[in-house]
Structure formats: structure tokens, C-alpha cells
Amino acid sequence: MAEQDNGIADATAAENRERQFNEVTLLESMYPEELQIIKHPKSQDDDFELEVRLDPGHSLSFILSPKTYPASSGPQVFLSFGSDVPNESRRQLRAHLRDIVDRQELGIECVDLIIGDFRQTLDDFNASAPDDVQRAGEQASPNASQNQALRVVLWMHHLLATSKRRAIVQLSKELGLGGFSKPGYPGSVFAEGEATAVRTFVDELKVHLLCWPQHVPMLT
User: Fold this and answer.
1) Longest distance between any two alpha carbons in the chain, whole Å
2) Cα-atom radius of gyration of the chain, to the nearest Å?
3) Distance of alpha carbon 152 from its chain centroid, rounded?
4) CA dihedral 182, 80, 89, 129 (to 10 degrees)
């Protein structure tokens, strides 16, 4: 029975990989200047890693797992910012991106759909952002805790998959955090930076990376 299950999983991964190659080939023709292949899979188990530069301040990164995408899940998607993008804008745009990814239909290739939807969202956001960000900044300015530093240590049963470890690195870069991870049994992640960004980091790991953290002591 186990051998049969493994055979089905291998067939699904092979089909996913073929669909990913076809999708990436199409994306390269659609985004010849913007698309960069960060990691090209060398084996059937390796992930595809892509980055699409939308403008000088915003880039989307995609991790395509052959085990799940596109047959049974969407891609992992991360948003990177230029240094001049305000924290409040980052928070709002990350929320918009989560909504876009969550709306995608399972079982279909959706990288281009996510890029197109987020580009439209970014255009709309930039058209209205100056006033919104200023109001948010005025509301947040009395709260000095937002400028405080925060450190967290996250423990999990294990941390082995390279795709998950790369996702942690990508998310920490996106949020401007420092730190390191220790793979193995158990796994752990140490992160530090601006308090709001660190809390967002923990929340994102719980939501998008299968609720790994089992114990999260906060250290100021």
C-alpha cells in the first residue's frame, strides 16, 4: 500500500513539474525583463523559485513545489520592498497580496493571475496611498511601542524542507529582520527587529507555513 501511495505521489509530482515548466516558459515570454529564475530545479523534488520585479520598490517572489503546485495548492508568494516604502504601506500591501493568493482556484496555474491582480492592486494603492499612509502614520505616532525592538525564538517539531527554510529567509528579508534558523529535530528560528515587523513575521509563519511555532517566548 505504501509503495502504491509513493507511486501516486511521484506521478503527481512529475505532472506538477511538467506543468510548472510550461508555466515558467510562458511567464518568460510574458515578462522578459521583469522575471528572474532564482532557482532552477535540478531534480524532480526541487522547487522552482521565481522573482518578478514590478517596479523599483516592489517585487514578488514565488516558490513552486512539485509536490503540491498546481494540483493541490497555490504557490508560496512573498512581497519584497524597497527601503523607502513606509511600514504602513508594507502592512497593507501584504494583506492585499494574501487576499489575492487566497482567492486563487486550486488546480490551475495562477502565477500570472497573481501578478496581474497584484499589479492592479498596487496601481490603485499608489493612487490613494499618500493620504491613507499619512492618516495611518498620524494615528500610530503616539504609540511609541511601534519603534521598539523585539526578539523572538520559535521552536517547532522539525525544520527540514529547504523550501520552508528559504521561505523563512525571504519573509525575514521582506520585513527587514535579522536572525538565523537551525534546521533539524527540533527546528528553531531566531528573529529580531522592529516590534511590529517581528509580530507580523510570527503571524505569517503561523498562517502560511502550517502553524509550525509551538512555543513563542517574546524577549524585549
Assistant:
1) 62
2) 19
3) 19
4) -170
